[in-house]
Amino acid sequence: MSFVWALAVVVLGASTAVAQSAGDVTVDELVTRSLADNPDLRAARAEIDAAIGRLRQAGLRPNPMLELGGQKALSSDNNLTVGVSVPLDLNGRKEGRVGVAEREVELKRAQARDRERRLAADVRMKAGELLAARRGLDVADELLRLNRDALRLVRDRVRQGATPALDETLMLVEVNRLDANRQMQASRVEVLSLQLKALAGMAPDAPLALRGDLASSADPPAVEDAIRLALATRPDLDAARVDVSASHARVRKEQAEGRWDASVNVGYQRQDMGFGLLGLTPSGTTRPIQDVFHFFGAGVSVMLPVRNRNQGNIAAAQAETQAAERRVEFAELLVRQEVAAALAQYAAARRSLEIYGRGVRDVAARNLDVVRQSYALGRGSLLDVIAEQRRYIDIENGYTDALKQVYDAGVEIARVTGTPALAPGR
Questions:
Q1: In angstroms, rounded to a whole number, what is the distance separating the alpha carbons of residues 66 and 71?
Q2: Which of 68, 152, 252, 340 is the most exposed place for a label (fewest CB within 10 A)?
């Protein structure tokens, strides 16, 4: 039995070398590719560019306004008016707009970093599912191969009359059951590969060979250190804090909008007018009473906040500020709970894995080997072999689940602390 497993390890190692030569990727490399190519994340980065554009717009002063006018009487009289009005944008109006736009850029950047954090965790989780399914497929392949070999031996013994014909039938049923289970495992590997490609922004027909396993040897930090790290690095907390700053900026903007403002205007007027009479010139001749007059003027228009001082918008912005501050408090409380839960889950999963590694798998493998040898020597029934083999499969599946739980807990610690360096598989 030990020789068979050693041979299986060699074969799997050879197949891994072939896969590497085909250009496979590690979990970290796949995360890097996902952060570069995921369409949803690229959309979030485009939102940053949009916010930068709005920041640029907020820093621009209002445009001057050109006013042109003219009048024409039924007579030859006419009047032409040209004026320019320039809004002054006083009392911190520009600073208020720019402050809100700057906070929006910071918010979009924090939200994009948070999407990166969540996407990296999703990719690692899905990669863990794929690695677990692939390990289950490897176990199914090896057991199917061993049982097919055993079926040939049983057939030979039936022909020789050393074993009842029922044993061949029972062995055939077990081989078919293992073959069906192997097909389901292969299908699950294929489905998980497609889901992982979608997260990574890859086409469904793109080649993907994931290198690595579920083993994790990194030690997580202490609870207090992890909480302190999470409170300092979590981008969703940064986004919540920026939202508070943005709310304060909106209050200042609305207050500026409620103050007085002014605009300066200058103008020119040309009047061509007269009367339908003749007048005398200094020389005594007559001429029509008609002349052109030019006027230049300037003025200031002042907006007086007497009735509308923007009180409603100011009150709404202040209430939004209080709401944002409460959300930060809740987010920090939630982060503390998530970190503590993730570390507790990791500790429990590690203990479960250690039990499987020390006192379950090795014992189960030896038991199965003993039962098979006993059957080969004619001291046991085939049903005993099948029953022990199914127990062994359950134990291997349980061990895979334990590995996956430790892996998932490590990914969860990296997610809740906002630190990719703590993720497994690095």
A1: 17
A2: 68
Tokens of 43: 């959309």
* Token output for 274: 């007269």
Running DSSP on this structure, what letter comes out for residue 307?
A: S
Instruction: Tell me the one-letter amino acid at 170.
Output: L
What the block records as the tokens of 377 is: 């020597």
281: tokens are 């010139």
Please state, in angstroms and rounded to a whole number, the distance separating the CA atoms of residues 268 and 281.
Answer: 29
DSSP 8-state secondary structure symbol assigned to residue 379: S
| Location of structure tokens 């690695």 | 131
Domains of the chain, by residue range, sit at 2-275+288-422
Q: Is 203 helix (H, G, I), strand (E, B) or coil?
A: coil
Who's near 133: CB < 8 A, 6+ residues apart? 185, 188, 189, 192
Which residues fall within 8 angstroms of residue 252, CB to CB, at 6 or more apart? 92, 95, 96, 99
CA distance 195 to 183: 19
Give yes or no for a contact between 251 and 318, defined as CB atoms under 8 angstroms apart: yes
Contact 215, 135 (CB under 8 A): no
What whole-number distance in Å separates Cα of residue 55 and Cα of residue 101? 5
Residue 118 token pair: 């969540």
Angle in degrees, 0-180, between the axes of helices 165-199 and 382-417, rounded to the nearest 10 = 10
Digit-coded pLDDT (tens) for 290-336: 788 899 999 999 999 998 999 999 999 999 999 999 999 999 999 99
Q: Which of the following CATH numbers is that of domain 2-275+288-422: 3.20.20.140, 1.10.1740.10, 3.40.570.10, 1.20.1600.10?
A: 1.20.1600.10
* Contact yes or no for 406/425 (Cβ under 8 A): no
Alpha carbon distance 33, 123 (integer Å): 10
Average pLDDT, whole number, for the chain?
86
Q: Distance between CA atoms of 104 and 55, rounded to whole angstroms?
A: 8
